[in-house]
Amino acid sequence: MTDLISTDLLQARNLVTEIPGPKSIALMARRTAAVSAGVGGTLPVFVDRAGGGVIVDVDGNSLIDLGSGIAVTTIGNAHPAVARSVQRQAERFTHTCFMVTPYEEYVSVCEALNRLTPGDHDKRSALFNSGAEAVENAVKIARAYTGRQAIVAFEHGYHGRTNLTMALTAKNMPYKHSFGPFASEIYRMPMSYPFRDGPHGGGEVASWAITKMDKEIGGSNIAAIIIEPIQGEGGFIVPAEGYLPALREYADAHGIVLIADEIQTGFCRTGHWFACEHENVVPDLITTAKGIADGLPLAAVTGHASIMDAVHVGGLGGTYGGNPIACAAALAVIDAMEQENSCGRAREIEAIMRARLQHMADGHPMIGDIRGRGAMMAIELVHPDTLTPDPEATGRIAKACHHDGVVVLTAGTFGNVLRFLPPLSITDELLHEALDVLASNL
Ligand SMILES: *Cc1c(COP(=O)(O)O)cnc(C)c1O
C-alpha cells in the first residue's frame, strides 16, 4: 500500500498564483492560436504532474482532483504500477497490430474482462481505442448476431461523438448541434429519472418504454437496447429500482441484445466492478473504456461467446485496437484494483460524500437531489423547492471551486448537475477539504 502514489508529490491543495497563473495564461494563448476552437475546456490551467488526489499545474498550483479526467484515472493518475508496466512494455515493443502478429497482453486483458464482467457464461472480448468505438462495435455485433437493425437508446443517454454514437446520444448541445445527418434506425425511450418522475416508480417508467418499443418499433425488429446503468454525462441519473430488470426481461422475451454501456461506471467506480451488479442485471454485451487503463487509450466489448463470435472473421478490428502499451496499463490497473480493494474504497468515498452532501443540502434548498453510487456522486441544482434547473448557479459554483483549487465537473441535460468523480487514491483529508471548498461556494 506504500506505493499507491509517487511519494514526492505532496498531497495538499496549495495555490501559489491566481488560477490560471502566468505560465498557464501563456500556454492558453498558444492553445488558442494552434488548437481548434471546437475542442472545449473546463479549467484554463495546464498540467505539469498529477497523482493521488492532486493535479499540479505548470505554475506550481496544486489542485484537488474531483474529476479523474472524467472517470478515467480511477486508481490514481500515473499510478506507479501502471507507470512501470507501461515503461517495460514500451521498451519491449510499442505496436505490431494484433491482427497481424498477436501478443499475449491483448489476450490477458480479454481473459480478465471475461472473468470480471457480470455473469458466469462463456464470454469473449474485443479491444478498441475509445469508448465511442466500443459502442459502435457493440452495435455492429448485435446487428450481425440478430440480423435486425433497430437500436434503442434512452433520454439523457450519452454514448460518444462519432456519427453512430452521436445518434445514440440524447443531448443536442454541444454533442450533436450542426453535425447531422445522423445514423438511422435509432429509437429513444423514456429513462427512469427518480428526481423528475414524481410518483412513477422504476417499473412504471419501464412499462412506458416497453409499450413504446412494442408499438413503435416491434420487439422482433430490435437488435439491441443500449443503456448506461447509471447515466454519466446525462447527470449521474440512477434509474429507480426495477427499471433495469424490466428492460432485461423485455430483451429476453424478444431476443434483443441488452448492451450495458459501462464506459463511465465500470472498473470499481460505483463500488462494484460494474454498476449492473447493483441490481443483479447481467447484460449480453458490456462496453468498457475510461477507468480500464488509467488514461491509456483502450476500450472493450465483452459478452456472450455466441453473440461475440457471430461476426464474420475480419469483421472486427482496427489498426491500434488493444495496443500493447494500453493493454500493459490495463493489466496493471486490474491487478491494482484487485489488490487495493478499489470497490471497497469507492464505497468508503460514497459514505463520506453522501453525509457531507446531505449536510450541505439541509442548509441549501437549491440542492434538489443527491445521487450516485460509490465515487460517482452528484448534486442537482434547482430553484429552491421546484424542479426548475439552475444551470447558472451550477456554472458559478463550479467556477468558484476551480478558482479555489478544486477540479469539479458539471453534467446533465439541463447543465445543472455538479458531478464528483474523485480518484480512489484521494486521501480522506483531501476529499474533506474539497467538500469544504464546495460548501463555502454554495
Ligand atoms: C465517455 C463515454 C463514452 C465515449 O467514450 P470516448 O472514449 O470518449 O469515446 C461512451 N459512453 C459513456 C457512458 C461514456 O461515459
Detailed description of the structure:
This protein is of the alpha/beta class and 442 residues long. It has 2 domains: 2-65 and 342-440, Aspartate Aminotransferase, domain 1 (Alpha-Beta Complex), CATH 3.90.1150.10; 83-339, 3-Layer(aba) Sandwich (Aspartate Aminotransferase, domain 2), CATH 3.40.640. 36% of the residues lie in helices and 16% in strands. The protein has helices at residues 22-34, 68-71, 80-92, 104-116, 131-146, 163-168, 202-217, 243-254, 305-308, 324-339, 342-363, 391-403, 428-440; strands spanning 47-51, 54-57, 62-65, 123-128, 150-154, 186-189, 222-227, 257-261, 285-288, 299-304, 367-373, 376-381, 406-407, 409-411, 417-420. It has a 7-stranded mixed sheet, with helices on both faces. A hairpin with a 2-residue loop joins strand 11 and strand 12. The longest helix is centred in the last third of the chain and has 22 residues, at 342-363.
